[in-house]
Amino acid sequence: MHLEIISAQKQHALAFAELILPAMEDLIYFYLGEENKTKALAFLQDQFLLEESLYSYAHSLVAFSESECVGALIAYDSDKHVKLQQKLQVYLQENQDFKDQLTPETEAGEFYLDALSVDPRFRGKKIGSELIEYAENLARERKHSHLGLLVDTENPKAKRLYERLDFKVVNNKNLGGHKYEHLQKKLF
């Protein structure tokens, strides 16, 4: 299977939202205050189209096989996280009546892999690994010493993938009442 990984473009909004929602649905439903897939997809598309958003096309990658979008990854410099998260907090307070405080997800100095998802029909074909490798190369180019990500404690399959790629658990996080492990991979 030939795979092409490219920087996401605005026209990828719907495919991106449909791919990324399963990887983030607990968190997105927490933001929205309800489990509503239609609203969640609309929220993700809106956020994707913004330049200054945690979930923006500006720091997302998409993987194509033939002409079909089969994978997506959001990745950015952890130094941007607090600013982007504050913008999300304001957006949620103004548009969703969100009362909670958002918990920072990243550690200083890491290139943060915010969300990764592969179309279920294409899992087991190393697409997730290739997206991570692509992000790892970006991180090296930008002189980051390590990658970071969160993995849901209820997703041991994903954790095994990350451990096979040399990620190690560094701490635990609680986001939206859900438990995650923070993993890092040293690059140099």
UniProtKB/TrEMBL annotation:
Q: Which GO terms describe its molecular function?
A: acyltransferase activity
Would the keyword Transferase turn up in this protein's UniProt record?
Answer: yes
Cross-referenced Gene3D superfamilies, in alphabetical order?
A: 3.40.630.30
Enzyme Commission number: 2.3.1.-
Q: What is the lineage of its organism?
A: Bacteria, Pseudomonadati, Bacteroidota, Flavobacteriia, Flavobacteriales
UniProt keyword annotations, A-Z: Acyltransferase, Transferase
Q: Does the keyword RNA-binding apply?
A: no
Q: Where is the N-acetyltransferase domain?
A: 18-188
InterPro entries, from UniProt? Acyl_CoA_acyltransferase, GNAT_dom, YpeA/RimI_acetyltransf
CDD domains in UniProt: NAT_SF
Q: Could you tell me which Pfam families the record lists for this protein?
A: Acetyltransf_1 (PF00583)
- In which organism is this protein found? Mesonia ostreae
Name under which the protein is recorded: GNAT family N-acetyltransferase
Domain of life from the UniProt record: Bacteria
